[in-house]
Amino acid sequence: MPQERTGPPGGGTPPAAGAGPVPPARSPAPAPPGPSPEADPFDWIGERLEQRRRAGLLRSLRPRPADSRLLDLAGNDYLGLTRHPEVVAAARHAAHRWGAGATGSRLVTGTTELHAELEAELAGFCGFEAALVFSSGYAANLAAVTALTDRGTLVVSDAANHASLIDGCRLSRAATAVVPHADPGAVAGALDGFDGRAVAVTDAVFSVDGDAAPLAELAAVCRDRGAALVVDEAHSLGVLGDGGRGALHAAGLAGAPGVVATATLSKALGSQGGVVLGPARVIDHLVNTARTFVFDTGLAPAATGAALAALRLVRAEPARAARVRAAARKLHAGLTAAGLDATRPDAAVVSVRAPAPEAAVRWAADCRAAGVAVGCFRPPSVPDGVSRLRLTARADLTDADVAAAVAAVAGTAPPAP
Length: 417
Hints:
Elements: H1 43-54, E1 71-73, H2 85-98, H3 113-126, E2 130-134, H4 137-147, E3 154-158, H5 163-172, E4 175-179, H6 184-191, E5 198-203, H7 215-225, E6 228-232, H8 247-250, E7 259-264, E8 274-278, H9 280-289, H10 291-294, H11 301-316, H12 319-337, E9 349-353, H13 357-369, E10 372-377, E11 388-392, H14 399-411
Parallel strand pairs: 1-10, 3-4, 3-5, 5-6, 6-7
Antiparallel strand pairs: 2-8, 7-8, 9-11, 10-11
Protein backbone atom coordinates (compact mmCIF):
# COMPACT_ATOMS: atom_id res chain seq x y z
CA MET A 1 0.00 0.00 0.00
CA PRO A 2 1.52 3.39 -0.91
CA GLN A 3 2.66 5.53 1.95
CA GLU A 4 0.39 8.50 2.74
CA ARG A 5 2.01 11.83 1.90
CA THR A 6 2.12 14.09 4.96
CA GLY A 7 4.28 16.92 3.69
CA PRO A 8 3.37 19.87 1.54
CA PRO A 9 2.72 19.39 -2.18
CA GLY A 10 5.94 18.61 -3.99
CA GLY A 11 7.64 17.22 -0.88
CA GLY A 12 9.81 19.01 1.66
CA THR A 13 9.34 19.50 5.41
CA PRO A 14 5.84 20.32 6.62
CA PRO A 15 5.50 23.65 8.42
CA ALA A 16 5.86 23.58 12.20
CA ALA A 17 2.77 24.11 14.34
CA GLY A 18 2.05 27.81 14.80
CA ALA A 19 4.38 28.80 12.01
CA GLY A 20 1.59 30.62 10.19
CA PRO A 21 0.20 30.08 6.73
CA VAL A 22 2.39 28.66 4.01
CA PRO A 23 3.22 31.37 1.44
CA PRO A 24 2.06 30.58 -2.08
CA ALA A 25 4.66 29.21 -4.48
CA ARG A 26 6.20 31.85 -6.73
CA SER A 27 5.50 31.65 -10.44
CA PRO A 28 8.49 30.85 -12.67
CA ALA A 29 10.22 33.86 -14.17
CA PRO A 30 9.18 34.61 -17.75
CA ALA A 31 11.51 33.23 -20.43
CA PRO A 32 13.94 35.78 -21.86
CA PRO A 33 13.30 36.97 -25.40
CA GLY A 34 14.53 34.51 -28.01
CA PRO A 35 13.46 32.48 -31.01
CA SER A 36 9.77 31.88 -31.37
CA PRO A 37 8.48 28.51 -30.14
CA GLU A 38 7.82 27.58 -33.76
CA ALA A 39 11.48 28.08 -34.80
CA ASP A 40 13.46 25.00 -35.86
CA PRO A 41 16.38 24.62 -33.39
CA PHE A 42 18.43 22.94 -36.13
CA ASP A 43 18.12 25.71 -38.73
CA TRP A 44 21.80 26.55 -38.22
CA ILE A 45 22.86 23.13 -39.53
CA GLY A 46 21.61 23.88 -43.04
CA GLU A 47 23.76 27.00 -43.17
CA ARG A 48 26.82 25.07 -41.98
CA LEU A 49 26.26 22.36 -44.59
CA GLU A 50 25.96 24.97 -47.30
CA GLN A 51 29.24 26.56 -46.16
CA ARG A 52 30.91 23.17 -46.40
CA ARG A 53 29.46 22.58 -49.85
CA ARG A 54 30.76 25.92 -51.13
CA ALA A 55 34.21 25.19 -49.72
CA GLY A 56 34.34 21.72 -51.32
CA LEU A 57 34.33 20.07 -47.89
CA LEU A 58 30.90 18.41 -47.82
CA ARG A 59 31.09 14.70 -47.02
CA SER A 60 28.60 11.96 -47.78
CA LEU A 61 28.32 8.20 -47.40
CA ARG A 62 28.83 5.84 -50.33
CA PRO A 63 27.75 2.29 -49.42
CA ARG A 64 29.95 -0.25 -51.21
CA PRO A 65 28.65 -3.52 -52.59
CA ALA A 66 30.06 -6.80 -51.34
CA ASP A 67 31.35 -7.64 -54.80
CA SER A 68 32.89 -4.32 -55.87
CA ARG A 69 35.18 -4.61 -58.87
CA LEU A 70 37.19 -1.54 -57.93
CA LEU A 71 40.87 -1.98 -57.13
CA ASP A 72 40.84 -0.94 -53.48
CA LEU A 73 43.61 1.46 -52.50
CA ALA A 74 41.36 3.43 -50.13
CA GLY A 75 40.81 0.97 -47.29
CA ASN A 76 43.27 -0.10 -44.60
CA ASP A 77 43.35 -3.85 -45.18
CA TYR A 78 47.15 -3.70 -45.33
CA LEU A 79 47.84 -7.42 -45.27
CA GLY A 80 44.83 -8.50 -47.30
CA LEU A 81 43.36 -10.49 -44.40
CA THR A 82 39.80 -9.18 -44.18
CA ARG A 83 38.51 -11.84 -46.58
CA HIS A 84 41.09 -14.51 -45.79
CA PRO A 85 39.24 -17.83 -45.41
CA GLU A 86 40.77 -18.55 -42.00
CA VAL A 87 39.85 -15.10 -40.67
CA VAL A 88 36.28 -15.31 -41.95
CA ALA A 89 35.89 -18.85 -40.59
CA ALA A 90 37.16 -17.73 -37.18
CA ALA A 91 34.62 -14.90 -37.09
CA ARG A 92 31.84 -17.31 -38.01
CA HIS A 93 32.91 -19.85 -35.39
CA ALA A 94 33.17 -17.22 -32.64
CA ALA A 95 29.70 -15.85 -33.40
CA HIS A 96 28.26 -19.36 -33.37
CA ARG A 97 29.93 -20.25 -30.07
CA TRP A 98 29.67 -16.96 -28.14
CA GLY A 99 26.77 -15.19 -29.83
CA ALA A 100 26.43 -12.09 -31.97
CA GLY A 101 27.43 -9.62 -29.25
CA ALA A 102 29.53 -9.47 -26.09
CA THR A 103 26.29 -8.90 -24.06
CA GLY A 104 27.80 -6.32 -21.71
CA SER A 105 30.77 -4.25 -20.66
CA ARG A 106 34.08 -5.99 -20.15
CA LEU A 107 33.71 -5.80 -16.34
CA VAL A 108 30.28 -7.43 -16.36
CA THR A 109 29.68 -10.10 -19.01
CA GLY A 110 31.61 -8.73 -21.99
CA THR A 111 34.90 -10.55 -21.38
CA THR A 112 34.99 -14.01 -22.91
CA GLU A 113 37.81 -16.52 -22.85
CA LEU A 114 38.43 -15.44 -26.45
CA HIS A 115 39.15 -11.86 -25.35
CA ALA A 116 41.70 -13.07 -22.80
CA GLU A 117 43.34 -15.29 -25.42
CA LEU A 118 43.62 -12.41 -27.89
CA GLU A 119 45.09 -10.09 -25.26
CA ALA A 120 47.73 -12.61 -24.22
CA GLU A 121 48.78 -13.27 -27.84
CA LEU A 122 48.85 -9.56 -28.77
CA ALA A 123 51.09 -8.81 -25.80
CA GLY A 124 53.43 -11.67 -26.63
CA PHE A 125 53.61 -10.84 -30.34
CA CYS A 126 54.27 -7.12 -29.81
CA GLY A 127 56.69 -7.62 -26.91
CA PHE A 128 54.73 -6.10 -24.02
CA GLU A 129 53.88 -7.41 -20.58
CA ALA A 130 50.12 -7.09 -20.94
CA ALA A 131 47.36 -5.95 -23.29
CA LEU A 132 43.76 -4.78 -23.04
CA VAL A 133 41.28 -5.00 -25.94
CA PHE A 134 38.73 -2.24 -26.63
CA SER A 135 35.79 -1.90 -29.00
CA SER A 136 37.78 0.36 -31.36
CA GLY A 137 41.18 1.93 -31.84
CA TYR A 138 39.61 5.31 -31.13
CA ALA A 139 38.37 4.05 -27.76
CA ALA A 140 41.82 2.62 -26.99
CA ASN A 141 43.50 5.97 -27.63
CA LEU A 142 40.96 7.87 -25.53
CA ALA A 143 41.55 5.39 -22.72
CA ALA A 144 45.34 5.55 -22.80
CA VAL A 145 45.53 9.34 -22.80
CA THR A 146 42.75 10.11 -20.32
CA ALA A 147 43.56 7.37 -17.81
CA LEU A 148 47.27 8.24 -17.67
CA THR A 149 46.73 11.97 -17.13
CA ASP A 150 44.80 14.44 -15.01
CA ARG A 151 44.56 18.18 -14.46
CA GLY A 152 48.10 18.33 -13.08
CA THR A 153 49.69 16.47 -16.00
CA LEU A 154 51.41 17.94 -19.03
CA VAL A 155 50.65 16.22 -22.35
CA VAL A 156 52.97 16.92 -25.28
CA SER A 157 51.26 16.11 -28.56
CA ASP A 158 52.61 16.05 -32.13
CA ALA A 159 50.84 18.54 -34.39
CA ALA A 160 50.01 15.78 -36.91
CA ASN A 161 48.52 13.29 -34.44
CA HIS A 162 45.32 11.43 -35.23
CA ALA A 163 42.01 12.91 -34.08
CA SER A 164 41.61 10.19 -31.45
CA LEU A 165 44.81 11.28 -29.69
CA ILE A 166 43.77 14.92 -29.99
CA ASP A 167 40.39 14.15 -28.46
CA GLY A 168 42.12 12.20 -25.71
CA CYS A 169 44.17 15.30 -24.88
CA ARG A 170 41.03 17.43 -24.77
CA LEU A 171 39.09 15.01 -22.59
CA SER A 172 42.01 14.50 -20.20
CA ARG A 173 41.72 18.10 -18.89
CA ALA A 174 45.50 18.12 -18.72
CA ALA A 175 47.59 21.01 -19.95
CA THR A 176 48.47 20.18 -23.56
CA ALA A 177 51.44 21.48 -25.53
CA VAL A 178 51.12 20.89 -29.28
CA VAL A 179 54.60 20.74 -30.79
CA PRO A 180 55.84 20.83 -34.40
CA HIS A 181 55.59 17.59 -36.31
CA ALA A 182 58.20 14.89 -35.69
CA ASP A 183 60.45 17.23 -33.70
CA PRO A 184 62.09 15.61 -30.63
CA GLY A 185 63.78 18.91 -29.81
CA ALA A 186 60.41 20.61 -29.54
CA VAL A 187 59.19 17.82 -27.24
CA ALA A 188 62.28 18.33 -25.06
CA GLY A 189 61.62 22.07 -24.95
CA ALA A 190 58.04 21.53 -23.85
CA LEU A 191 59.06 19.10 -21.10
CA ASP A 192 62.00 21.12 -19.78
CA GLY A 193 61.15 23.00 -16.64
CA PHE A 194 57.97 21.08 -15.93
CA ASP A 195 58.23 19.22 -12.61
CA GLY A 196 54.95 17.30 -12.62
CA ARG A 197 53.84 14.13 -14.40
CA ALA A 198 54.21 14.35 -18.16
CA VAL A 199 53.22 12.22 -21.15
CA ALA A 200 54.29 12.59 -24.77
CA VAL A 201 51.85 11.18 -27.36
CA THR A 202 52.54 10.44 -31.01
CA ASP A 203 51.47 8.32 -33.94
CA ALA A 204 54.08 5.74 -34.90
CA VAL A 205 53.17 6.21 -38.57
CA PHE A 206 51.14 9.29 -39.40
CA SER A 207 47.90 8.56 -41.19
CA VAL A 208 47.93 11.38 -43.75
CA ASP A 209 51.41 11.20 -45.30
CA GLY A 210 52.58 7.81 -44.01
CA ASP A 211 55.81 9.09 -42.45
CA ALA A 212 57.21 7.44 -39.33
CA ALA A 213 57.86 9.20 -36.04
CA PRO A 214 61.45 9.36 -34.71
CA LEU A 215 60.63 6.97 -31.88
CA ALA A 216 64.16 6.31 -30.62
CA GLU A 217 64.83 10.03 -30.21
CA LEU A 218 61.43 10.68 -28.63
CA ALA A 219 61.94 7.83 -26.17
CA ALA A 220 65.33 9.22 -25.17
CA VAL A 221 63.86 12.68 -24.60
CA CYS A 222 61.10 11.22 -22.42
CA ARG A 223 63.41 8.89 -20.52
CA ASP A 224 65.84 11.70 -19.67
CA ARG A 225 62.99 13.84 -18.31
CA GLY A 226 60.94 11.19 -16.53
CA ALA A 227 58.02 11.42 -18.96
CA ALA A 228 55.92 8.57 -20.30
CA LEU A 229 55.61 7.91 -24.03
CA VAL A 230 52.33 6.77 -25.60
CA VAL A 231 52.61 5.62 -29.22
CA ASP A 232 49.71 4.83 -31.54
CA GLU A 233 50.72 1.86 -33.72
CA ALA A 234 47.53 1.91 -35.83
CA HIS A 235 49.42 2.14 -39.14
CA SER A 236 52.54 0.21 -38.10
CA LEU A 237 51.24 -2.98 -36.45
CA GLY A 238 51.53 -5.71 -39.07
CA VAL A 239 53.62 -3.47 -41.34
CA LEU A 240 56.81 -2.43 -39.52
CA GLY A 241 59.16 -4.37 -37.26
CA ASP A 242 60.21 -8.00 -37.34
CA GLY A 243 57.35 -9.83 -39.05
CA GLY A 244 55.02 -6.86 -38.46
CA ARG A 245 55.52 -6.52 -34.71
CA GLY A 246 55.32 -2.74 -34.94
CA ALA A 247 57.44 0.38 -34.96
CA LEU A 248 58.25 0.22 -31.26
CA HIS A 249 59.56 -3.32 -31.68
CA ALA A 250 61.66 -2.18 -34.64
CA ALA A 251 63.12 0.63 -32.49
CA GLY A 252 63.92 -1.76 -29.60
CA LEU A 253 61.34 -0.05 -27.39
CA ALA A 254 58.67 -2.74 -27.05
CA GLY A 255 58.22 -3.45 -23.35
CA ALA A 256 60.50 -0.60 -22.30
CA PRO A 257 59.72 1.11 -18.99
CA GLY A 258 57.60 4.19 -19.45
CA VAL A 259 56.36 3.18 -22.93
CA VAL A 260 52.73 2.36 -23.78
CA ALA A 261 51.44 1.36 -27.22
CA THR A 262 47.98 1.52 -28.69
CA ALA A 263 46.80 -0.05 -31.93
CA THR A 264 43.73 -0.87 -33.94
CA LEU A 265 42.65 -4.34 -34.97
CA SER A 266 40.86 -2.96 -38.04
CA LYS A 267 43.81 -2.32 -40.34
CA ALA A 268 46.55 -4.93 -40.75
CA LEU A 269 44.56 -7.49 -38.76
CA GLY A 270 41.50 -6.98 -40.97
CA SER A 271 38.96 -7.09 -38.15
CA GLN A 272 37.72 -4.44 -35.71
CA GLY A 273 38.61 -3.21 -32.25
CA GLY A 274 41.57 -1.65 -30.51
CA VAL A 275 44.22 -2.50 -27.95
CA VAL A 276 46.45 -0.86 -25.36
CA LEU A 277 49.76 -2.61 -24.59
CA GLY A 278 52.15 -1.84 -21.75
CA PRO A 279 53.28 -2.78 -18.25
CA ALA A 280 50.80 -4.94 -16.32
CA ARG A 281 50.20 -2.20 -13.75
CA VAL A 282 49.24 0.22 -16.50
CA ILE A 283 46.74 -2.29 -17.88
CA ASP A 284 45.34 -2.89 -14.37
CA HIS A 285 44.96 0.87 -14.00
CA LEU A 286 43.03 1.09 -17.28
CA VAL A 287 40.71 -1.74 -16.22
CA ASN A 288 39.79 0.32 -13.17
CA THR A 289 39.73 3.86 -14.55
CA ALA A 290 39.45 4.03 -18.37
CA ARG A 291 35.91 5.18 -19.11
CA THR A 292 35.89 3.82 -22.66
CA PHE A 293 36.63 0.41 -21.16
CA VAL A 294 34.50 0.46 -18.02
CA PHE A 295 31.34 1.86 -19.64
CA ASP A 296 31.52 0.41 -23.15
CA THR A 297 30.22 -2.93 -24.42
CA GLY A 298 33.00 -5.41 -25.07
CA LEU A 299 34.27 -6.16 -28.56
CA ALA A 300 31.92 -8.56 -30.37
CA PRO A 301 33.07 -12.20 -30.36
CA ALA A 302 33.17 -12.38 -34.18
CA ALA A 303 35.59 -9.44 -34.36
CA THR A 304 37.64 -10.88 -31.49
CA GLY A 305 37.93 -14.28 -33.14
CA ALA A 306 38.78 -12.75 -36.52
CA ALA A 307 41.53 -10.60 -35.03
CA LEU A 308 43.02 -13.60 -33.24
CA ALA A 309 43.05 -15.66 -36.43
CA ALA A 310 44.63 -12.78 -38.35
CA LEU A 311 47.31 -12.32 -35.69
CA ARG A 312 48.22 -16.00 -35.96
CA LEU A 313 48.48 -15.68 -39.75
CA VAL A 314 50.80 -12.68 -39.37
CA ARG A 315 52.99 -14.69 -37.01
CA ALA A 316 53.01 -17.69 -39.34
CA GLU A 317 53.63 -15.62 -42.50
CA PRO A 318 56.07 -12.84 -41.54
CA ALA A 319 56.79 -11.99 -45.19
CA ARG A 320 53.41 -10.24 -45.47
CA ALA A 321 54.84 -7.16 -43.73
CA ALA A 322 57.73 -6.93 -46.18
CA ARG A 323 55.36 -7.34 -49.13
CA VAL A 324 53.12 -4.46 -48.16
CA ARG A 325 56.12 -2.15 -47.71
CA ALA A 326 57.48 -3.21 -51.12
CA ALA A 327 54.11 -2.49 -52.74
CA ALA A 328 54.06 1.00 -51.19
CA ARG A 329 57.54 1.72 -52.54
CA LYS A 330 56.46 0.63 -56.03
CA LEU A 331 53.43 2.91 -55.87
CA HIS A 332 55.62 5.82 -54.83
CA ALA A 333 58.14 5.15 -57.57
CA GLY A 334 55.45 4.99 -60.25
CA LEU A 335 53.65 8.12 -59.09
CA THR A 336 56.80 10.22 -58.82
CA ALA A 337 57.98 8.97 -62.22
CA ALA A 338 54.68 10.29 -63.58
CA GLY A 339 55.53 13.73 -62.19
CA LEU A 340 53.16 13.69 -59.20
CA ASP A 341 54.00 15.08 -55.75
CA ALA A 342 53.87 11.82 -53.79
CA THR A 343 55.18 11.26 -50.26
CA ARG A 344 57.91 8.68 -49.69
CA PRO A 345 56.31 5.87 -47.64
CA ASP A 346 57.79 4.67 -44.36
CA ALA A 347 55.05 2.04 -44.11
CA ALA A 348 52.00 1.40 -46.33
CA VAL A 349 50.56 4.89 -46.95
CA VAL A 350 51.39 7.03 -50.00
CA SER A 351 49.83 10.49 -50.36
CA VAL A 352 49.59 12.66 -53.47
CA ARG A 353 48.96 16.36 -53.07
CA ALA A 354 45.99 17.98 -54.79
CA PRO A 355 45.72 21.67 -55.71
CA ALA A 356 42.43 22.28 -53.84
CA PRO A 357 39.66 20.42 -51.97
CA GLU A 358 37.29 20.49 -54.98
CA ALA A 359 40.07 19.22 -57.24
CA ALA A 360 40.80 16.37 -54.82
CA VAL A 361 37.13 15.31 -54.83
CA ARG A 362 36.96 15.32 -58.63
CA TRP A 363 40.28 13.50 -58.87
CA ALA A 364 39.12 10.74 -56.53
CA ALA A 365 35.87 10.41 -58.50
CA ASP A 366 37.80 10.18 -61.78
CA CYS A 367 39.99 7.46 -60.28
CA ARG A 368 36.86 5.52 -59.32
CA ALA A 369 35.57 5.87 -62.86
CA ALA A 370 38.92 4.44 -64.00
CA GLY A 371 38.45 1.44 -61.70
CA VAL A 372 40.58 2.43 -58.70
CA ALA A 373 39.29 3.48 -55.27
CA VAL A 374 41.56 5.97 -53.47
CA GLY A 375 41.17 7.99 -50.30
CA CYS A 376 40.35 11.70 -50.52
CA PHE A 377 41.62 13.71 -47.56
CA ARG A 378 40.54 17.33 -47.09
CA PRO A 379 40.43 19.78 -44.19
CA PRO A 380 39.93 19.23 -41.32
CA SER A 381 41.36 15.71 -41.80
CA VAL A 382 44.74 17.10 -42.90
CA PRO A 383 46.86 18.93 -40.31
CA ASP A 384 48.48 21.32 -42.80
CA GLY A 385 45.28 22.20 -44.67
CA VAL A 386 46.52 20.68 -47.96
CA SER A 387 44.10 18.26 -49.66
CA ARG A 388 45.45 14.91 -50.83
CA LEU A 389 44.65 11.62 -52.40
CA ARG A 390 45.78 8.82 -50.09
CA LEU A 391 46.70 5.41 -51.46
CA THR A 392 47.13 2.47 -49.12
CA ALA A 393 49.20 -0.46 -50.27
CA ARG A 394 48.32 -4.08 -49.55
CA ALA A 395 50.47 -7.17 -49.26
CA ASP A 396 48.38 -8.92 -51.92
CA LEU A 397 48.80 -6.27 -54.64
CA THR A 398 50.37 -7.59 -57.83
CA ASP A 399 52.69 -5.63 -60.08
CA ALA A 400 49.77 -5.36 -62.50
CA ASP A 401 47.63 -3.85 -59.73
CA VAL A 402 50.30 -1.27 -58.94
CA ALA A 403 50.68 -0.37 -62.61
CA ALA A 404 46.89 0.02 -62.97
CA ALA A 405 46.71 2.23 -59.90
CA VAL A 406 49.53 4.47 -61.10
CA ALA A 407 47.96 4.76 -64.55
CA ALA A 408 44.57 5.69 -63.09
CA VAL A 409 45.92 8.32 -60.68
CA ALA A 410 48.36 9.84 -63.16
CA GLY A 411 45.91 9.72 -66.04
CA THR A 412 43.22 11.64 -64.15
CA ALA A 413 45.47 14.13 -62.35
CA PRO A 414 44.23 17.75 -62.40
CA PRO A 415 46.45 20.32 -64.11
CA ALA A 416 49.02 21.98 -61.91
CA PRO A 417 47.87 25.40 -60.66
